[in-house]
Amino acid sequence: MPFCCLRANGARASQEMAMDREGRLALIVSVARTMIAHEDELTRLDQAIGDGDHGVNMRRGFEAVLRDAEAMAELSPALALDAIGHRLVNCIGGAAGPLYGTLLLSLGRYAGHARTLQDWVIAFGQAIEDVKRRGRSEAGQKTLLDVFVPVHAILVEKGGEAVAQLARIAEDAAEETRPMRALRGRAAFLGERSIGHVDPGARSASLVLGVVGRVLCEEK
Ligand code: ADP
Ligand code: MG
Q1: Structure pTM?
Q2: Dist. CA 126 → ligand 1 center (Å)
Q3: pLDDT per position as a tens digit, 128-140
Q4: Does 21-218 carry CATH code 3.30.70.1350?
């Protein structure tokens, strides 16, 4: 049995999504390990247009998550998201900590009664709005929002079909930040010189979403 049969049923957004403890643990551990494994790449991206700490920031945050993964997996999805969000806010320095923290804390809050993929996609959209408020930012400014916003739009349009392709969709969105000029965060200080580089936060966002897509569609 796949964790939630998303691939098999394509775009049926009204389908219930149940995830057991094993599934939650696999998701938390996979996201954390992926982020830790990509530290060097995120460092290089942030060295190009920031201060080079995004890799370390994300590794530190997700190492803290990994330490508590077993306990977090015991919780309901909403409470687990809340716990992960708090861990990230406390352990990730810089701009990314509060922004990822806001995304997960808000997702946990809005997804309290989520049962279907559609419910989760709506909650994801509401959480993105909170990130925008927190960062005083929007899509098009070369930030992690340039992954979250277009990916959310595709999820609204295509449902489970998009979940099965989440890694590719998110990677393409991150790559689209390359020609953008940064208007938020440290990269904005570079002006025109921020053009030609993928945004580090957009890349880390694409990694998170890619893992979520893969784990949700995995066979048990
Ligand atoms: P810092 O910029 O404080 O060094 P990080 O390097 O960990 O923090 O994170 C940088 C990333 O955070 C950027 O690549 C960008 O995606 C994101 N970011 C920075 N400021 C904002 C903002 N105001 N709104 C949305 N995302 C932002
Ligand atoms: Mg940085």
Answers
A1: 0.94
A2: 20
A3: 999 999 999 999 9
A4: no
